[in-house]
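Suppose you are handed only these lines of text.
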Amino acid sequence: MRRALVTGITGQDGGYLAERLLTDGYEVHGLVHDGDAGLPDLLGRSPGVVLHQGDLRDTASLAAAVAAADPDEVYNLAGISSVAFSWQQPVLTADITALGAARLLEAVRELQDRRGREVRFVQASSAEIFGSAGGVQSETTPLHPTSPYGAAKAYVHQLVDVYRQAGLFAVSLVLFNHESPRRPPTFVTRKITQTVARIAQGQGSELVLGNLEARRDWGWAPDYVDAMVRACRAPVADDFVVATGEAHSVREFALAAFARAGVSDGADRIRVDPELVRPGDPAVLVGDASKARAVLGWAPTVPFEELVGRMVDADL
Ligand code: GDP
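From them, the structure of the protein bound to guanosine-5'-diphosphate can be written out as follows.
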């Protein structure tokens, strides 16, 4: 039985990944910390996971968790996951997202050396490493982050390559935005679907947003977890962009959500709060996943309207 260790297991992707790996017959271990808010949901859905206490800021606890789990595969999904929060806490973002990954990579390399058997490493990277590069981004797009979050992810993306050159099977997946009904409402998609569902049920009147014209490449989170698993099982370690190749604006998302919920005057209920507009927000992020399609046989399965529909239906 193969063993996997997942950091960030209580998050959206971590939960889907745990379910996928359990279905595939893995023993699934997760790194958790005190006060992890997602723990009850995780244990409700996947009672079979083995939990280890640990903190990406603390080398000793991390090394102990890696040694106890003794994994064949490590998926690093943990970190500060919000661009907005990274502006409030840039140093914490660097410590957890950037240095935490460095600590984990080192623990994995040590484990592999000690037991003389391969340990595979998968990093959840982000489209934010490209910043406002413009155009369609691929594996060859130069890194040019525009937020502390993007800078931390860019460092890890390069560090994964460094460890790969040094002999570790390490892959970095450049994940474009990926959503689901489990997305926290700090992200715009879930904020929209939750608010629209409330409005449809007469519990609210307006939807207050920031930049309505920001265009993002929104995919279905379980598809992105599938890409992680495929990259981990590939014959050769490499980096892959994971995206749908289609961009839609925040406004389009909101209007599609209102339409799905049957709210006919949705456009009039949207209000912009300039406080919610971010400094340096990339105007458009859209990815070219041709390499993942060709090498991993990966493809997104849920188109935009259907994604919005699933999230709205869940909130209704
Ligand atoms: P991110 O791309 O990982 O930061 O995901 P978000 O869902 O937080 O943001 C996606 C886009 O929506 C960004 O361009 C935001 O500036 C934009 N946006 C517009 N209004 C809002 C809002 O009210 N909340 C959030 N979180 N984002 C918003």
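What can we learn from it? DSSP finds eleven helices and 15 strands in the chain. The longest helix spans residues 90-115.
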